[in-house]
Design goal:
The protein is of the alpha+beta class and 123 residues long. Helices cover 45% and strands 20% of the residues. It is built from five helices and three strands, in the order αβββαααα. Strands 1-2-3 form a three-stranded antiparallel β-sheet. Helix 1 crosses helix 2 and helix 4 crosses helix 5. The radius of gyration is 13 Å and the shape is globular.
Length: 123
Amino acid sequence: MYNEKVLDHFNNPRNVGEPEEQNAVGVVQSESCGDTTYIYLDVEDGIIKDIKFRTFGCAAAIASSSMLTEMAKGKTLEEARKISTESIVNELGGLPEQKIHCSVLAGDALKAAIDDYIANHKE
């Protein structure tokens, strides 16, 4: 059902947990399956210095969150906001059609964390 890259990110997820320093968090829960993703950001000078996640869900949800953190780390908030569902799925080498919503969950949690940072750090 899952390819080797998805299984690798599920079995060996990158950037799990909460960063020591964090200044934003995004939380999204899937209405269809109940999976929940938390994305934690440590932003410095508009750049994602560190990003971590906690996902309570299936293999595809965990793998999508893991891949997303690798894609977003070191990017500006604007660049990170542009990470699409399709790009997450492509970087994972594909997901079964019925699991695409897992990559949406990860992307939405990142956007919620970016919105949280912006809302709490207005100049």
